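Methods: example folding runs. The two proteins below were folded one after another, and each record is reproduced exactly as written to the output file, sequence line first and structure-token line second.
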Amino acid sequence: MGVLTRYRTTTAAGVIAVFVLVLVFGSPPYGDWARDNANGTGALDLFLSVLTWPSWDFSADLPVRDVVAVMLRAILVVAFTALFLAALTAARSGSALAQLFIGWAAVVFAGAAAGLVTGIIQSDTSALAVFQLISSGATYGIFAGWIVGLATLRAPARR
């Protein structure tokens, strides 16, 4: 048993997985590629587009408040995933299926919570805009959360 395996907990495995998802698929180059290439009506196009939601783009054409909200959204998805994974893992039943759903649900909740917080910060703070961000965040969690769930499958609840 290696050092990495010994220190790999459910929360750590999930945070690493969601961090990589946000880092890679939230990056400006991937976002540009998805806008140019994943704009069809197929399921794969939808999946590739949804993965860009927690972007961390420094667009100069947005108000500073919106740039901060976009950057904070990416950070909050990772932070809230850690929070929800830690809370949900404490109550897990031990089965692999339960662990998959815990990892998945943590990202759904994290995306919705990040959408709520950043929706309040944005310059267009209407109730509709906030609800749309919450919905987009939850949709991101539904599409990307299974990856985090798979990453947490074999990780122990505690060290």
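Second run, written to the same file directly after the first:
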Amino acid sequence: METRALSVNLREVKKNEAAKLRRQGRVPAVVYHKGEATVAISVDEISLGKLVHSSESHLIDLQYQDGKSVLSFIKDVQFDPVSDRVIHADFQRFSADEVVEMEVPIHLEGECPGVKIGGGKIQINVHTLPLKGKPEAMPEHFTIDVSILELGQTLHIRDLQTIAPEGIQILGDADASVISVLAPRKESEAAAEGAAGA
């Protein structure tokens, strides 16, 4: 997984401080690590936005003004419900030998016969997968080959564990649906009408 550098400033936690930072184009954030005190920081809104809206996951090298740097990843982001701007972020520190849990985006590849031949539509039920493993083993994204999917088929988390990178475990409900190939609307409507008539 690629590591991206992000410059950070320490900040004081006080009344109206967060709003003032946002007016200056900065996002209040925190850095935490199990067993250590949480550190309050601020980051440039545009730089953070590029990481948050990327189609890949990244490890982030937080670079402080005093020359210190720590490896982390984005654990949580809060958005403004009206403007959709990032208004707060949580970074989780880690050490190289530590097992971490992080969300990784899903990428699809291949041509789906259920779509090409059957006229169906791919429905992506989740856009990220929660993975557990060592940072160096974490993929930037989780690739799923849809060329095996026929009309009406669904891939669940349990089906994806066999294609996970070595040393990586997919978390969550094993029966959770990840991708489905839906029948064409006319067919599904006809099936529903037939069921209702029966």
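Comment on the second run: The chain has two domains: 3-94, 101-197.
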